[in-house]
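Researcher: We're reviewing a set of sequences before deciding which ones to prioritize for further study. For each one, I'd like a predicted 3D structure that I can look through quickly. This is ABC transporter permease protein YurM. If possible, include the structure in token form so it fits the rest of the review sheet.
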Amino acid sequence: MEPTISVEPNVRRGEYRRFKLSTVFIYLVLTAWAMTTIYPLFWIVNNSFKVSRDVMNNSFSIAKEFNMINYTTAFDRINIGKSYVNSLIMSGSAVILVLIFGGLAAYVLARFNFAGKKVLYSLLYATLLIPAFATVVPVYELLIKTGTVNTYWGLILPHTAGNLTFAILVMAGYMSTIPKELEEAAFIDGSNRWQMFYKVFVPISRPVFASASIFVFLWSYNDLFSALIFVNKENVRPIVALLNEISSQYGTDFGLMATAITLTVIPVLIVYLFISKYIQQGLTEGAVKG
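Model: Here's the predicted structure for ABC transporter permease protein YurM, in token form for your review sheet.
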């Protein structure tokens, strides 16, 4: 009998080598892509510890010391702390209202069959095609009639209404993937519809609730256009509107500008770090059905 030569180890080594090369290439691309975001953020934070003269002369050098004068100026002269509070109140309230009303609406759409359900879905998708600029005039008139212009509600209500459709569709898609056996088991244990919602569906749907909350918070927190129109008074001015004013009044103070941008980004990073583990799971599983 002639000896046989096995080529399987070589094939496996070749496959392993190709796999490693492709993995290295992917990581190189992802690293380069990440640096386009990480480096500008580092550049802004680094320049926030410099005076304006140093930023102009050598903005790419590492700050030799942590000079906090820009941060002191931001809180003392510009009163950025008040704008912080305003933004967190309005954006946080919009997130809570969207999760409550959006979660209830998504539960109904995902687990109930009723006449006109497909039409309702079509209307929800159609509203996503309406540009926000087209709704400014009617929304402003409604706010004037209700006396909520230049109040917290003047931004909370438009942001809640504007983000509700997106949240409903995403959460309904996720809830529709929950097995019916859990629903039947809850019925057997004596739960009514309301108990089933907050004891079964809400805990299971935490990933999609986290995904919706971060997107709603970002859209509300960064919405400069609505802030300039609906809440343009200093006592309710959010931080993005203050940042716009700083750029016009203190545009030559580059150190102060870098500090204001840094302080604007910090809350977004904190919120993302706390719920980042839920975001990918919520978006991918919520896209399975709906």
